[in-house]
Amino acid sequence: MRAWPRTLFGRLVAIAVLALLAAHVLNFTVAFYVQSHAARSGASYTVGRDMAALIGVLEQSPAAERAAWLRRLARREYTYRLGGPDGKALASENAARFAAGVQAALGPPYVVRASEAARPEAALSLGVTLADGTPLHVDVAPPEPPDRLWPGVYVVVQLVSIVFFTWLAVRQATMPLSRLADAADRLGTTADPVVLAEAGPLEVRRAASAFNAMGRRITAHLAERLQILAAIAHDLQTPITRMRLRADLMDDASQRNRIEADLDAMQALVEQGLAYARTANSASEAAVRLDVDAFIDALVCDYRDAGQVIRIDGACGKPVRVRLQALRRIVTNLVDNALRYAGDVEIGLGVGAGGALELEVRDRGPGIPEGELASVIQPYYRLEASRNRDTGGAGLGLAIVHQLLTAMGGTLELSNRPGGGLVARCVVPG
Description:
Distance between the termini: 35 Å
Number of helices: 9
Low-confidence stretches: 385-392
Radius of gyration: 45 Å
Strand content: 5-15%
Structural class: alpha+beta
Number of strands: 11
Strand order of the largest sheet: 6-8-9-11-10
Shape: rod-shaped
Mean pLDDT: 76
Order of helices and strands: HHEHEEEHHHEHEEHEEHEE
């Protein structure tokens, strides 16, 4: 069902509102029917009681005084008259029901006859015959039309109240789920644990307590892992330096060059390991408003001065709120990665919804197999064919970019270009 809400909040609101509306319509229908039936029965009973009283008076009064009694006992809803023939008999169900109600109030020996009223303003005429044979008629006026404005306003106010209070109640019930989902999205992206407020119903407090305990364990595990990685990378620099000094003392130039090449590769691994470990604290950097167009242009000019071919496609056109050092590492990592495998790079710039920075780094290299696009952002993952250690990669460039973007609430999307090459698309929230 396409019209059915996708979120739990929307579905609960829809279910509750529809159920309450159905109950409201049913209650309103039953109340309207009962009220209408009671009104008809009450009106006929009232007319019958008045007619019974009038007949008692008329039966005891001289003929000359009867007209005065008719004027005294007349009502706004019905009037009496003596004599005259009955109008055309009415066979409608409402007229028969009304006459039966009056007949029940009068009782024997009088027989009530329903006919068309002589006056146009009356709805029907009820006739009986007195003991002396004189016809007595009562012309019943149609009921006044009800005030349609206030019932309509009442119904609208009720419906609006049902929708509003249902929305409010469901929102209060589902808000802990939204907070839990938001906290789960932030978990692992910062060095500090994400803490949920342990408040609300018992089930919500238990879920928040369990989530906070899990978050502390995950944060401690990530911190320990990064600390071990940083410690190993740092401690390796000392033996690498000693080995480089010993290599310089070697007489065999061929062996010395091979050892120095291996030491350079080890040094690159150590530096990238330290860089990856430092990204855990990227979320602590303060965001600033930056002229991204000028910033990217300055980076591109540095690459061009080094003889690289880089083009810029598009522009932001206005300052964007970003974390400067994190953005610098993201752009340089992606550009270095593209230059390493393609040698021809294009940077696309733009501003998306909500002021988010949209940045693309495109190359015309060998690309990445579709089945491995999601795997290459993992630390130390290298492709055997096109992107391996022989080309200078340690498998941490894209992992660092992904971790930086995640810490900032952004996204990294990799896709192959038509005609060959890779597109790395970054969205950085403003």
